């Protein structure tokens, strides 16, 4: 038998409510995340992910509402919704109701969700005392990731130093960012190689320019020699001799 997760989502913009039931067989035996099929609300497709052993803490049941195909959403996309989760047992009896206040779903929220999906242990030791502090640190993390998207050779020494400082700040706050530290190291190495390659390119270009100057000088000299040769080979006229 399975447990049921009944999901009610309201699109606060259009005041429309959608109900969706997600049945999970043998729920007590599950450990990994479980995702539902897609359902529509507010002109978007959504799905629910259930974490039987918690999201980034291991002592609770976590239920997360996700928007489908985030890459297809235009920049600045957002929806304000009021999700409500109802947990039922195999007999249909309500075990728990999880209601939340209005939530703003945006492209930034989706990026944060993607980070936690790929690195579920990222914030196990991060325990901020307020939502404001949590949001501030997440903005620092998103800003750092956005910075690392730049071409390595475009980084200045100051930008690279600032990136290391932000990474250190996040790590000291409790984030597990070995993967980001590795990426930053790769960027620094690629930048170093790009600078070295750029120096070699400049050196080769200088040599080519010098060769061009030498070639032009040779062409001028060749023209002079051809003129002398042509003059020497000229057949003299009668007047030239008499």
UniProtKB/TrEMBL annotation:
Residues 17-138 form the MATH domain. This is MATH/TRAF domain. InterPro entries: MATH/TRAF_dom, MCC. Residues 201-228 form a coiled coil. It comes from the Eukaryota. Keywords: Coiled coil. Pfam families: MATH_2.
């Amino acid at each position: 038998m399975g447990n049921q997760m009944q999901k009610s989502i309201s699109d606060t913009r259009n005041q429309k409510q959608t109900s969706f039931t997600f049945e999970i067989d043998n729920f007590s035996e599950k450990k990994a995340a479980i995702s539902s099929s897609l359902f529509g609300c507010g002109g978007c497709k959504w799905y629910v992910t259930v974490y039987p052993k918690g999201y980034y803490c291991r002592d609770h049941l976590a239920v997360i509402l996700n928007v489908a195909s985030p890459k297809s959403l235009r920049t600045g996309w957002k929806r304000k919704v009021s999700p409500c989760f109802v947990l039922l047992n195999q007999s249909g009896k309500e075990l728990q109701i999880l209601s939340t206040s209005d939530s703003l779903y945006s492209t930034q929220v989706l990026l944060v969700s993607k980070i936690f999906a790929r690195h579920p242990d990222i914030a196990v030791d991060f325990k901020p005392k307020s939502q404001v502090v949590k949001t501030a640190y997440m903005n620092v993390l998103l800003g750092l990731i956005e910075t690392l998207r730049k071409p390595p050779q475009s980084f200045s020494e100051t930008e690279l130093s600032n990136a290391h400082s932000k990474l250190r700040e996040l790590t000291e706050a409790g984030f597990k960012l070995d993967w980001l530290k590795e990426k930053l190291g790769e960027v620094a190495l690629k930048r170093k190689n790009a600078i070295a390659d750029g120096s070699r390119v400049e050196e080769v270009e200088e040599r080519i320019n010098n060769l061009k100057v030498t070639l032009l000088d040779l062409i001028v000299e060749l023209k002079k020699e051809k003129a002398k040769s042509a003059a020497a080979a000229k057949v003299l006229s009668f007047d030239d001799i008499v």
